[in-house]
Structure formats: C-alpha cells, structure tokens
Write a structure and sequence with these properties.
Elements (H helix, E strand, L loop, with lengths): L6 H89 L1 H12 L5 E9 L2 E8 L2 H12 L4 E14 L2 E12 L3
C-alpha cells in the first residue's frame, strides 16, 4: 500500500485561502475607508455650503433689520407729523370760532329788550352778564341761545331786579356750555 502525504497540499491550500481572505479583508477595509472618506467629504462640503448660506442669510437679516429700523423711525416721524398736522388743523378750525360765536350771540340778542355787559370764556363754558327789560326777555334770550349751533346748554346763574335811572330792569348772569366746533 502506498501512502501519500497530503498534508503539505492542505497547508498550501490553507495558506492560499488565508492569503485570499487577508486580501479580501484588506480590500473590504480599504473600500470601507474610501466610502467613509467620501461620505465625510460630502458632508463636510454640505456643511460648509450650509454655513455659507447661513452667513449670507444672517447678512441679509442684518440688512432687513436695518431697513425695519428705518421703517420704524419713519413711522414714528409720520405719527409725530400727523399729530402736529392735527393740532394745526384744530388751531385753524378754532381760529374763527370766537368770531362766529360772538356773531351768533349778537344776532340772537334782541337790541331793544336786552343789553350785554360782559361775555367771558372759561374752558368749555361761556359766561354772559347783562341787563334785560324783564324776566320774559331773559327767558327768550336763553331759549334762543339753546337753539344756537355753538352752544350746548344754558343755565341761569343769577337774576335780580335793579333800578337803573328809575327803570326796574333784570340783571342776569348765564352760564353756557359750548359745543366743540
């Protein structure tokens, strides 16, 4: 019987298999490392692109905040000017108000029955002092004042009879609330 030693063949086969496996492991590791490097480079570029985008948007945001600040300043200036224009308009409207109210009181006053001595203005009130022929003339004058477009209400503050040159006349004081023009 012939004996054949197969051990060196199996050893060579084992060494070849191990060498193939080592090469395969090295190639797999190299491919894995290359894949990781490619992914790393891709994400690094993506991150740098996003950072540039963030910086550009932050710069744009700073510009827009500056514009918004200017707009807010313009709005404040606009409100101030509108208030000033409102005051000017109100002053212009109120400029002729005393003339109109005095003209209306003059037209309402009956010349033969009533004489006005003093007209004074305090805030929103108008105080009228005068002398009337009698109580009826004073009452008619009060009614006429109430129908005026510049006077809201009329109140009799005082009324007393006085003797002037032998005539008995009614001295009166009225308080009137003015309407805003």
């Amino acid at each position: 019987m012939i004996k054949i030693n197969l051990l060196p063949y199996k050893e060579k086969e084992k060494k070849a298999t191990m060498a193939r496996q080592a090469v395969l492991v090295l190639l797999s590791s190299l491919i894995f490392l290359l894949l990781i490097a490619a992914v790393h480079i891709f994400f690094s570029q993506s991150i740098s692109g996003l950072q540039k985008d963030v910086k550009a948007r932050e710069a744009r945001l700073a510009e827009l905040k500056k514009v918004i600040g200017e707009i807010d300043t313009i709005k404040v200036e606009k409100n101030t000017l509108e208030k000033k224009l409102g005051v000017i308009k109100r002053l212009d409207e109120d400029r002729l108000y005393p003339v109109r109210i005095l003209d209306e009181i003059n037209q309402i006053t009956p010349p033969k029955d009533l004489w006005l001595n003093k007209i004074s203005e305090t805030g929103g009130n108008l105080n009228i002092e005068g002398i009337g022929r009698d109580n009826i003339a004073v009452a008619l004058f009060m009614k006429s004042l109430e129908t005026s477009k510049h006077i809201q209400s009329v109140e009799l503050v005082s009324s007393k009879q006085v003797d002037i040159s032998g005539l008995k006349l009614q001295q009166f004081t009225l308080s009137c609330v003015k309407k805003r023009s």
